[in-house]
Amino acid sequence: MHLAVVGLSHRTAPVEIRERLSIPEHSLASSLQSLRADDQVLEASILSTCNRLEIYSLLRTPAEGVEAIRQFLSIHSGLPGDDLNPHLFALHHEEAIQHLLRVSAGLDSLVLGEGQILSQVKKMVRLGQDHRSIGPILNRLLTQAVSTGKRVRSETRLGSGAVSISSAAVELAQLKVGQEQGFDELLPLCDERITVVGAGRMARLLIQHLQAKGARRLVLINRTVARAEELARGFPDLPIRCLGLDQLDLQLREATLLFTSTGADEPIITRQRLDGLQRHQRLMLVDIGVPRNISSDAAQARLVQCFDVDDLQEVVDRNQAARREIAEQAEALLAEDQRSFLDWWEGLEAVPTINRLRRHLDSLREQELVKALSRMGPDFSERERKVVEALSKGIINKVLHGPTTALRAPQSRSQRLAAMEALERLFDLQGVVDEDGTGANPGAD
Ligand SMILES: NC(=O)c1ccc[n+]([C@@H]2O[C@H](COP(=O)([O-])OP(=O)(O)OC[C@H]3O[C@@H](n4cnc5c(N)ncnc54)[C@H](OP(=O)(O)O)[C@@H]3O)[C@@H](O)[C@H]2O)c1
Predict the structure, then answer these.
(1) Rounded to two decimals, what is the model's pTM?
(2) Which tops the pLDDT comparison, 309 or 444?
(3) Closest ligand 1 atom to the C-alpha of 119?
């Protein structure tokens, strides 16, 4: 058995590739089912966020298993392998574990230490459990990742300062407004006419940051106006006008700064739409949706500046030097948690060998017991038979105790595999049949 993660992220693929792979929430269950239908994939879970699509899995064999997942991703995205594979990464065993713990802690995020990723990892665990696509190994690993994510945030200052994609989007707008006026710094947004499209989690964070950065009022557009109104009620000190999506054209004419954060599968703002409007002032569009809410040709419309999640890198790079120091403390915590999972996993690897040794010794015990009892003859009482049987079992348990404890004790994987191989050889366990009817294969992964 072999742990692996195959996928892509903002580090390996631009947003135009990431959006092709994004799996909408309603398709996650069927995607998990397709993955598990492959004989190579023993357990599977999907982490799908705006910046990454990663498939964590327990595979029968590494190369064939990874290939099965690549094929799934190619079919799902409609991208041929030649176009997709250069953007995919595959990490195995310790590297896969380390990667997951870093992701959960927010150390692999575009905005270092952002908090949303931890709830997305929790969601991945819940989905895997609900759809039974994960078994004992991934369940343990993913649960460990959640507690590592929490631990890093409670034991370091990485999560402090309310960092998120939304806060970076607001900072990017501030920076661009500053640069427009000849300053390479973040300016307050008090003079902007601001519109936010979408009223979900990201929109709430956008509004929080906009308020903190000087917005005096804003327009909130959402498909469901009632949801926008509910969100607006959470900001009693900020005048928010709530409108339906049918008012978008009006806002594209009136706003100077417009953020989009909807879960729409297709762009809702295109060049064609913008070109059809009578607009006389600069409009800055900041899109944090993935798939993108604004088509890439919108930047060519007159008086329009367009930014998407990949453009956030510019502002993120400016203010992360201080956070990197805290990130180093977090890496040390991660190393401890990774070791504790590996100790558990490697101890587990020895279980089939221990079970075969037990079965082998037990079968010898039973054979010898039958012979001994038949030699004793009928005078031997039932009680005496039970005492002899208990004695034979007790001896076997005592014999097994030493090797069992030694194999499960923390040690390097190569030491454990060497000990397992020695036991298999000395007790000739190769021929002993496993509980599932297969033969021995010590250390196979
Ligand atoms: N969550 C994150 O950590 C994160 C981070 C960065 C970027 N993003 C991206 O930001 C976007 C929003 O994420 P979220 O977490 O805020 O989602 P959310 O809480 O589920 O909210 C989704 C919003 O999108 C609207 N919406 C959904 N489908 C739509 C459609 N076809 N047309 C118009 N509006 C539609 C919904 O309107 P109703 O109220 O009418 O349903 C709601 O306002 C997504 O593209 C996501 O990938 C998310």
Answers:
(1) 0.82
(2) 309
(3) 3
